[in-house]
Amino acid sequence: MGPPGPHGSLPLTAFRRARCLLYITYTSEIGSLLTASAVLGHLYADDIQAYLHCLATNATDAVRAMSLALGALETWMSTNRLRLNPSKTQFIWLGTRQQLAKLDLSTIAADFPQFVFSSVVRDLGVTLDQELTFAPHINRLCRDSYYQLRQFRTVARSLTSNSTATLIHSFITVRLDYCCSLYAGLPAGRLGCLTRVLRSAARLCGRIPKFGHVSGYMLDVLHWLPLLQRISYRMIALVWRSLLGLAPAYLRDLCCPTLGAPGRRSLRSTERGVLMVPFARTATKQNRAFSVEWAPFGTAIASQNSL
């Protein structure tokens, strides 16, 4: 229960929700402040992500713009009795290996000594590396999941299958499903360790030997989808919510039906209700974009009335 009020007590979940809404309302000016500083950004509760797109030759100008935006943000926060936590403020360059090699980090460090760029940062529970391979995040996720599985094995004999499945869902599968749409387009070899974690969890639930068949048990008894299908389901759910107008604006803007595109009203694709897919030149980054990855599901989603 939460803090007592004048007419009793407020449930903890309602108190936390009200506190988050009050904070979002209190900091609603941060978005316009970033826009005035020519910086793009996203806000989630008390986390702020500010970013800029630039060429490697314009890196110094981008850092200067980010420095001005950071100064304006610190001034606004101090005026409104808030404080920007310097220990949790991280900076990172994102790009391909060739683009990152063109950066003159020594010059940037000399001009802006207050900026310390990291090779890996943590954002909303996801570990981001410079090339967005998600290898550090997946390695840490597998390490933590196997640790939990080893702990569960000590008490699994005293629990029923349903109780074990509930524990594994609370500590393992929830972590695997969190932001799993980011794994779309990653090589199968990198996702193999997550698949092995899921299968090990299923073996623990069903008390199946190490080399026993577990795929049928996962589908027929536990009703668990394989990892690749779980990723596809998350992508489909995001697109469906975007079409219904329930997703954030930055996702809704990416799901554009061909019917609203100029010059495409007479095409047969407009009658099927498919979505526009931007042209992608590079296989390493652009083909993994959200607006490209959902392309195989666009026609199927548009033809359904429900998910």
How does this model look, in words?
By secondary structure, the chain is mainly alpha-helical. The protein folds into three domains: 4-118, no CATH class; 135-224, no CATH class; 247-302, no CATH class. The chain has helices spanning 12-26, 29-36, 59-79, 97-101, 105-111, 135-153, 161-177, 188-206, 215-220, 227-244, 249-252, 268-272, 290-293, 298-302; strands spanning 4-5, 8-9, 40-44, 47-51, 120-123, 126-129. The strands form three sheets. It has a two-stranded antiparallel sheet with strand order 1-2. The chain has a two-stranded antiparallel ribbon with strand order 3-4. β5 (120-123) and β6 form a beta hairpin. The longest helix is centred in the N-terminal third of the chain and has 21 residues, at 59-79. It is globular. Residues 1-10 have low confidence and may be disordered.
List key phrases describing it.
14 helices; 307 residues; mainly alpha; 3 domains; disordered N terminus; 50% helix; two-stranded antiparallel ribbon; 6 strands; two-stranded antiparallel sheet
Number of helical elements: 14
Low-confidence stretches: 1-10
| Total number of strands | 6
What global shape is seen? globular
- How big a fraction of the residues is strand? 5-15%
Topology as a string of helices (H) and strands (E): EEHHEEHHHEEHHHHHHHHH
Major β-sheet profile: 2 strands, antiparallel
Radius of gyration over all CA atoms, rounded = 23 Å
Number of self-contained structural domains: 3
Structural class, judged by helices and strands?
Answer: mainly alpha
What is the subunit organization of this protein? Answer: single chain
